[in-house]
Every structure is written in structure tokens, then in C-alpha cells.
Amino acid sequence: MQTRNMISGLATCAFMFMSAGYGQAQEAATPLTVSASATSEVPEKVQSGDLRIAVVRQINSGDFYEQWMDGAQQEADRLSVKLDIYNANGDNARQALMLEQAVATQPDAIVLALGFGETLEPGIAAAQAANIPVVAFYVEVEPSANVVTIDQGDTLMMDGVLNQLAQDLGGGELNAKVIYVYVPGYQALDTRHTVWVDFLEKNPGVQSVGTIGVVNSNTAAQTADQTKAMLTANRDVKAIIAPFNEFAKGAALGIEELGMQKDVKVYGIDISTADIAVMTKPDSPWVATGTTDPSNVGAVVLRAATLKAVGQLEGETLSVPPTIVTQAALLKDGIQNMEQLAENFPSLKTPELLSAPWMDGMQ
Asked: DSSP string spanning 214-257?
């Protein structure tokens, strides 16, 4: 399939974050690998079913986060790992309190699923003092021997969808008005934003007429309302850059409600079965997305935490490699759900990533 271009390579090198200090820390970080001490022998605490991991989530609503948690839970079940799940429902202060509560229960490891490093810093310090390893997924913290970081290949995903935008605009010297969807403060969105800023600098003919965006329990619906207001004032916009699937769904809905789906296209990031339905509906404006498989990423994070808990993980950071999925590819192969997507894009599944030999025989 011509659109099935795997964005190859683990993006474990540093990304350009808003915080220069964090970027410098990432440059010195080493990639995560399974320790050579990991053999086919199942660690005693795993074998007994007593290994316990706390998952402290900042956001738990939305397709991506639900699939991510499903993947982590299924992997925990496969490995006989007990999960204690804390849901902060988007409340940063509540997540910080929940992290401290999790530390007090003395789990074998803690997974931080999104969140703000500054808010979580006291809890992370408490975990370190208690010798509890932390795996931070999309949390802007400095990786260290006791705190490892995992994310998706955000720079590669954003590059991929912007390259698709450039192709759709005809290539060469680009000229178009666009709308951008962005909320600062989230590691993933901030990383994608640096790519966007660089793209605008290199393509002065692409003009952003405005930035919209909100992150809450009703992101898609509110983004739809913002999209309609912005498009009503700017009828000559050609595209909306919406680098988060809830943004993209909202943008697509707003375009459709104005009847402008033939004129305005959406470029997103992340995917789910619900997103596939949006992208493949007749005349859908959502034409491309950069993505990993969220359930696969959840499983990778769970394996990292398990290996860290039993002393079989080395290194400090990892980016799960992404793929670009286009509307044309989905329609060509009749893809309707994530299972079919994984069959057609096998690179989305990475069961070998951070997998110890003893994990292979577990069901």
C-alpha cells in the first residue's frame, strides 16, 4: 500500500521541548532495553502473582486513553500483575494527591499516565525516597535511574501529517490559510507544537488564521463549537491541523455541521475504532492521522514497569515508533476497526518491544 509508510526508527533521541533544561536531560538519556539478566525464568514475585503496580492517570476519558488503559490491563492480566488504578479525571491537584497515596501503599512500581511534572514532582521525590521505580508516560520529568520516561514518536507523527498536508496542497511553494488546534502544557502537544512552528517558518505561504483548543472531559464537542466559530469568520481556510484525536473529531464535526467538508480537510494524530468510523464516513474531512496503537503502547508501558520492578530494565527513555494512516488507505482496504488496522499496518503492534524471554510463554 503506497500510503503505508512506516516512520522507522525509535525516536529515543531528544526532542525540542518548551523547556530547554528538559531537552538537555533527554539528550543525555539512554534508550530503554531489557537487561541481559532477564532469562526464561519467571521472576519469583511475578510467578507468585504478588507483583503490584499503581497506575496514576491524569486523564481517563476519550478513546485514546481508554484503549491505552485496556492495553495495559490486558498485559497485566497476561503477566499476572496486579494493578491499582487511580483516576484523577483531569484534575492535576487530585493526581498529585493520588500519587502520594499510591506511594504510601508501597507498590512495586508506579506508572504515571500523563500529567504535569511540576505538579507531580513532590510525589515522584517521595517514590524515589521509598525506592519505588516510576515509569512516566507523557509526563515532562527528567529521566533518571529510578524514573524512566516513555512516549510516542511525536516529532515523527507531526512531521508525517504535515508532509501529507504539503502533498495535498500540491507540494512546492505552499499557499493556504489554516486553523491550528493546540493547548500548551501537555508534553505531547508541546512537542508536536515545536514541529508546527518549524513548519510555518519553512513554509511562509501557510498562514494560521487562529488557534483554538481545549482539553477537558468534553474536548471534541467544544472543539467543534470553536471550529464553527473560526470557520464562520474565515471561510477561505483549507485545512485544520488538529494533533490529538479528540481535537480532530471535534474539528471534523464542526466542518460537517457547516457543510464545508469538501473545502476544509483535517489532519490529526492518534486513532481509535471510533476515529476510523469518522475518517471513513462519506465525505469525511479527516484525511490523515499520525498514530501508534494506543493499546499496544499501554502494553509496552506495563512491560516497562514490570521489568523495572524486578530489576530487569536498563536505560531511561523510549519513544514508541508511529505510522501515518490516511483516509485513502482505510477506504482502499475496507478497514473499520483497530483489529483490521493492525492487520494492514503490522508495524503498529510491537510485542517484541521491552519483552523479556520469560514473558514469551505467559498467556
From this structure: --STTHHHHHHHHHHHHHHH-TT--EEEE-SHHHHHHHHHHHHH
